[in-house]
């Protein structure tokens, strides 16, 4: 009688759970985000541009010396709404706690920024959650009555949603 031998299946290596401080680069973040199926590319300025996999497109800028990652996005408005951009940014700041909103009247935009400070390493699960929360915050602000008072006005007020 023969006994069958089963060869244990090879385990696929799991993606890393962190990026060491000395290894934090756009390339290492790009690879980590692609591991969790977030479509990311490096833009012409060398920043990461997250275009799919979140509720709203965002840009990720690194300052390795200060050990900070900036999350950034914006909503662009039609020119006739320029006078109210400051008030809209202030209302967003009063209603949303993670993102900081500010107006850029020269380009008819409301910008949003958030910061992730790291020491020793970036914990990827935490960073992914913060990215998702930030993108959702910008999405909610863009579609909330603060930015788009009604569906009829939405078509004329908002030009680009990223």
Can you tell me the overall shape?
elongated
Class of secondary structure makeup: alpha+beta
Distance between the termini: 68 Å
Low-confidence stretches: 148-162
> What's the helical proportion of residues?
25-40%
Total number of helices: 4
Would you list the SSEs in sequence order as H and E? EHEEEEHEEEHHE
Radius of gyration: 20 Å
> Largest sheet, described in full?
7 strands, antiparallel
Total beta strand runs: 9
Mean pLDDT: 82
Strand content: 25-35%
Task: Outline the structure in words.
The C terminus is likely disordered. Helices cover 30% and strands 30% of the residues. β6 and β7 form a beta hairpin. Strands 2, 3, 4, 5, 6, 7 and 9 form a seven-stranded antiparallel β-sheet that branches. A two-stranded antiparallel sheet has the order 1-8. The chain has 162 residues and is of the alpha+beta class.
Outline of the structure:
The chain has 162 residues and is α+β, with helices and mostly antiparallel strands. It has 4 helices and 9 strands; from the N terminus they run βαββββαβββααβ.
Strand and helix map with partners:
Layout: E1 18-20, H1 26-35, E2 39-42, E3 48-52, E4 58-63, E5 68-77, H2 85-95, E6 100-104, E7 109-117, E8 121-123, H3 124-143, H4 151-157, E9 158-160
Antiparallel strand pairs: 1-8, 2-3, 3-4, 4-5, 5-7, 5-9, 6-7
Question: Key features?
Answer:
162 residues, two-stranded antiparallel ribbon, 30% helix, 30% strand
